[in-house]
Amino acid sequence: MEQLDEEKIENQVYKNGDALKSFDDFREYLRGKVNLGKKLGMDEEQLANSAQKVADYLAHKEPPKNSEERLLQELWNVGTEEEQHKLAHMLVRLVLHS
């Protein structure tokens, strides 16, 4: 499986910038990426690892576009690496079960 690097994440964020304007659109965008990962055979741990990399990029490089994203960013920034990983799992589950 190909590793996510910052350049690939950045390209996806800019390519899909409109998808990040509202939280509902962001959630649908994330759902699409999670479903794609599942089709490629990724398990929840692999999905969470990928989500963690993307969330870390967003927290440090992209300003939040709505209050929900601001809350996620602030939680991310105050969390330990273990808490961030758990939050990534929660985000994956959010889109899988909604």
Describe this structure in words.
- The protein is mostly helical.
- Helices cover 74% and strands 0% of the residues.
- Helix 3 (44-61) packs across helix 4.
Helix content: over 70%
The helix/strand series, from N terminus to C terminus, equals HHHHH
Question: What is the tally of helical segments?
Answer: 5
Q: How many E strands?
A: 0
Span of the ends, CA to CA: 27 Å
Give start-end ranges of low-pLDDT stretches. Answer: none
Beta-strand percentage range: under 5%
**Mean of residue pLDDT values:** 84
Oligomeric nature of the chains: single chain
What would you report as the Rg, rounded to the nearest angstrom? 12 Å
Largest sheet: none
Bulk shape: globular
Structural class given helices, strands, pairing? Answer: mainly alpha
Provide a concise account of the structure shown:
With 98 residues, this protein is an all-alpha fold. It has helices at 6-15, 23-39, 44-61, 67-78, 81-96. The longest helix has 18 residues, at 44-61.
